[in-house]
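Quick check before the chapter quiz. The format below is the same one you will see on the exam, so make sure you can read both the input and the output lines.
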Amino acid sequence: MVHSCCDAFLKYFKMKNLVVLSGAGISAESGIKTFRDANGLWEGHDVMEVASFDGFLKNPELVLDFYNQRRRQLREVMPNAAHQFLVDLEQFYKVTVVTQNVDDLHERAGSSEVIHLHGELFKVRSLEDENLVYDWKEDLLLTTKNKEGHQLRPHIVWFGEAVPEMDHAIIKVKQADILLIIGTSLQVYPAPG
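Here is the expected output.
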């Protein structure tokens, strides 16, 4: 009798949609520097120099080097217990992770559905056609072009650019039975909206 009650309980909750909004704090435990801490990634750089299209146009080598360093660091870290916990929740819920992070730690931990609001560090895209996106784990140089001859840039949403996954994320949040917020101060818009 007790076993059937537990089964019914778990079956009820398994149907629930759990949406997780994650930010830099969840990846900090894995050794990824956050952008806003005292020793954060912006230190030594004006944010608009390395995270805007204008910054890229003014000094593409600086911008590419900035993201090459981030990509190198990401290759050296692993998901942590918090990432794994979210994967474990998939036993009980339909879990969607909406992340502000550009790392792939949720995927490496095993999360089934991850929406990246601000892009992905291990991807690049064409400057001419933003729909031409490629998996990329190595350094990106000014001489790196796709087969169409287009310069490639980090597949990162820079300040002032549209957030292409926002509509998808809004749909998921509206469908959520439970919303869990982890590792974010909700200071970077449009995610807090």
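If your answer matched, good. The CA atoms of residues 17 and 175 lie 7 Å apart.
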